[in-house]
Every structure is written in structure tokens, then in C-alpha cells.
Amino acid sequence: MEYINEDFLKDIFITKKAMRRSSDNKVESPILFKSLVIFGVPGSGKTSIANYIAREATKYYGINNVNARYVSNGEIGFLIRFGIEKKLVNILFIDNLTLVKVRPETLQSYFKIRHHHVLEGLEKGYVLSIVAIHRFHSSPLEVRTIMDGLIVLDSTMNPYDRTVLNNFVGSEVVNYFDSLASKKQEDPELKSLAYYKSKSIEGWIKIPLVKQKYMKYVFE
Fold first, then answer.
1. Are 19 and 123 a contacting pair, CB within 8 Å?
2. Considering only CA atoms, which of 168, 175, 131 is closest in space to residue 154?
């Protein structure tokens, strides 16, 4: 199996050159924004992927240029109020947004976070949102409609979610995840497999184990 880890990282990390081009636009905010969704059952490794992305971001942009914060159980309000720092790159991870009721105005504020007052005055910047869910039908619709990329960790037997996954990544990928379900207990390496789909690329990625904690809780 071929992996597209390098292309995956290029797809989600905006270059500083692209940021400079954005800063020349005097009408819009110079802060760019992308949204990723991670789909997988509880314990499938969604937090590990977010931590891996944060680690790679520190390599790509420089550790002093990256702020990586997370909240659990849909505490979006805390992330909006306390998670942003005046840095080149902000990575915001919302863990477990499934079955959580979020006020519409809070969601609206979150997806407009590139206009956050803390970022005012920056000539360029990038906010990467990562949202983890284990059901589509019990998650805010905005999460799915605004996303720029989807990372899938396993399949599901829920008819609605299975239909959504088939529409996004195709039945062949979903069926392959089905075939891995029983094998993951015998071969832990299979738990590191994920499938990525965006407007420009798609393919399998392998998530390495990252022992150091790069994502910090919003109040740390």
C-alpha cells in the first residue's frame, strides 16, 4: 500500500508564500482558515492524529510560530475565548463534538475565528481547525459542510453515517475498513491507518506514534 503522508501535509499546511499573497488582499482578513474533520469510533486514534499534525506543523513553521490547543466534549466557547494566540499558526482541535449541543451563534463565531480580535494587526497567519466526531448524524451540520478535508479512521454500521462515508470516500474504502475491524486486535499497526480526502487529493496515510504531547489543553 502506498501512503500519501507527504502530500497530505502539503495539502493541509499553507505555505508562508501563500500567506503573504493573502496579506496583499486589503479587503479580506489576511488570516487564512482551513477545517479538517476526523471520523472514527471512540479510541480509534483521533487525538493521536491531531497531535501528529501539531508536531509536523512545528517542524514546518517553527516551534515558536505554532500554537496548538484543544478542548473536549465540544467546549468551543472556551477555545474561542482562550485558545487563540497571536502567532503565525493556530491549530485548534475540538475533540468529541458528537452528541453535543452547540449554540448556532457559537458555531458561527468559531468558523469565523480568523477574524478573532487577538489576531488583529497580524500581516499574515493561518488557523487550522480539526474537529473529531464518531457520528455524522449527531454532529452539527456546519462541521460537514464547511470542512476542507476528511480523515477517516474506520467504518461504521450506522446506515446514515455509512451512506455519508460512501459518498465522501467511496464504498471500496469503507469496505476495506470493514475487513480490518477484526484484524486490528491482532495487528496494532493497522490502527495507524487512515484515509484522507480533500478537494485536491485523496489516499491512505499512516499515522506514526508521537510520544511527546504537542496539543495542549486550552487552559494549560
1. no
2. 175
